[in-house]
Amino acid sequence: MAARRGRLRLKKRTRRQLRGLGVVAVPAAGVWTAGNWSTVWPVLVVAIAVAMSGGAGWAVLRAHWRAVRQDRAWREQEEARARELSMAEVDALSWQEFETYIAQLCRRDGCTDVVVSGKSGDLGADVVGHLADGRKLVVQCKKYAPHRSVSSQDMQKFVGTARLEHGADVALFVTTCRTFTKAAQGLALRQDIVALHRDLLGSWVKGAHLETLIPLNGSGDGTRRRSSA
Q1: Model-level pTM greater than 0.70?
Q2: pLDDT of residue 144
C-alpha cells in the first residue's frame, strides 16, 4: 500500500514538473520563433506543403486501391454471371446429352479416340479418350441439380474403377452441382482424381482449356503415368 502511494506521489510530481517545463518552454519557443521568423517561415511553409502533398497523395492512393478492389469484385461477379448463363444450356440437357457434351469438350481441347459409353453398367467410365500427350482420360459425369453435392459414395465408386478397371492416367469426375462433400473432395485428392465442380465446369464451357483446369483441383492433378506394357 505504501509503495502504491509512493508511485502516485511520483506520478503527480512528474506531471507537475512537465507542466512547469511547458509553462517555460512554450513562451521561450514563441520568443525564439519571433526572433528568427525570417529563417523559420520558409521551413514552416515547406513543412505545410509537404504535409498537404502527402495527405493528398495518400487520399489518391486510397481511392485507387478502393477502385481496384471494386473493379476486381465487379469482374468476379460478371465472370460468375457469365458462367451461370453458359451453364443454363447445360442444365437443360438430359444426362445422356450431358455425357455427349462433355465428350465434345474433350475433343475441342485436343483429346483423341473419345468414346461415350451412354449406358448403365459402364463402371464409372462415361467418357473415355486420350489427352494430346497420350495419357488415357476416363471421365465420370454426374448431371446433378446445382444445389446438390457429390457424395463420398459417388467418389468411392469412381476411385474403385477408374484405374483398376479402365487404366486411367487422368481420372476426371465432372458434375453440374456446386460442391463435392468434404469427404468426397478429400478422397479425390488422396486418390489423384480431378474433381470438377460447377464453377470449373462453367469455365470449361466458356472456353478454358482442359489442361489448365486439371491442376486447379489441388493435388489431384492426374499426372501419374502408367508404365508401358
Answers
A1: no
A2: 94
* Cβ atoms 175, 198 nearer than 8 A: yes
Q: Calculate mean pLDDT across residues 154-161.
A: 93
pLDDT at 130: 96
Contacts 24+ apart (CB under 8 A), 154-162: 154/184, 155/180, 155/183, 155/184, 155/187, 155/188, 155/193, 155/195, 156/187, 157/124, 158/124, 158/193, 159/187, 159/188, 159/191, 159/193, 160/124, 161/123, 161/124, 161/125, 162/124, 162/125, 162/138, 162/193
- The residue with greater pLDDT, 217 or 132, is 132
pLDDT at residue 134, as a whole number: 93
Element (H, E) at 212: helix 210-213
Residue 222, sorted as left (phi over 0), alpha (psi -120 to 50) or beta, turns out to be: left
What three-state secondary structure class fits 218?
coil
Q: What is the pLDDT of residue 127?
A: 95
